[in-house]
Structures are given as structure tokens and as C-alpha cells.
Amino acid sequence: MKTIILGLGLLISGLSWSGTVQMINALGSSPKGQYVAIEEYGYNAGLKTYYSRIKIMNVWKNHYVSEPIEIEKGARRPSDLVQVRKEVLEQASEEIARFKIDLSG
To answer: How far apart are alpha carbons 88 and 19 in whole angstroms?
Structure first.
């Protein structure tokens, strides 16, 4: 057990040195909870870019039901990430509506 915990600690510390920051956020779900919109966003240090990716998942069947919608742009200032996230949400709006996902929650 100690070996597993030590291994996980080393893995996590190694990931922090990679320079990529990733956040995962559940944006909303369909009325019955079958479909969930998931956003992954963050900073790619290697490319010096901000990115945002939205995927729609059928949680009852545990698989994605649409191709990811993604935007990646140069990171000049923190407000650029806000803009990238806004743009990808606009592009994903049709898919979100198709699966009746409520983002207000």
C-alpha cells in the first residue's frame, strides 16, 4: 500500500513539472442526467497557448457521443483564457442544445 501511495505521489509531482495546467469542469447535464457536457481547459506551457475542449458524454453508457470541440490560442494575458473558453462554448452550443443540456446549474 505504501508503494502505491509513493508511486502516485511521484506521478503527481512529475506531472506538475511538465508545465501543462489542466482543469476539468462539468458544465451541465440533460434533464434525466444521461448526458453531461464536460470542459477541459488550461495552459499548455510547451506551446505557450490556452486551450478549451468541450465533450458531451452519455454517462449511462460511459462513452462520448460527439467529437470534442476545441480551441487553442496563444497565451499573451490571462483574459485570453476567458476568451478561448467563451468561444468554444459558442461553438459547442448546437451540440449542447441537441442533447438538451442545461448549463444554468
So the answer is: 23
Identify whether the C-beta of residue 35 lies closer than 8 Å to the C-beta of residue 65. yes
User: Which of 38, 49, 44 has the alpha carbon at shortest distance from 89?
Assistant: 38
- 13-22 pLDDT, tens digit per residue, is 444 445 677 8
Contact 37, 92 (CB under 8 A): yes
Predicted confidence at residue 105, as pLDDT, reads: 67
**Residue ranges with strand state E in the chain:** 20-29, 35-44, 49-58, 63-64, 69-74
Does residue 84 belong to any structural domain of this protein? yes
Tell me the DSSP string of 60-93.
Answer: TTTEE-S--EEEEEE-SSTHHHHHHHHHHHHHTH
pLDDT tens digits, residue range 82-105?
A: 999 999 999 999 999 999 999 986
Distance between CA atoms of residues 32 and 68, nearest Å: 22
Tell me if 1 is assigned to some domain. no
- The total of structural domains in the chain comes to 1
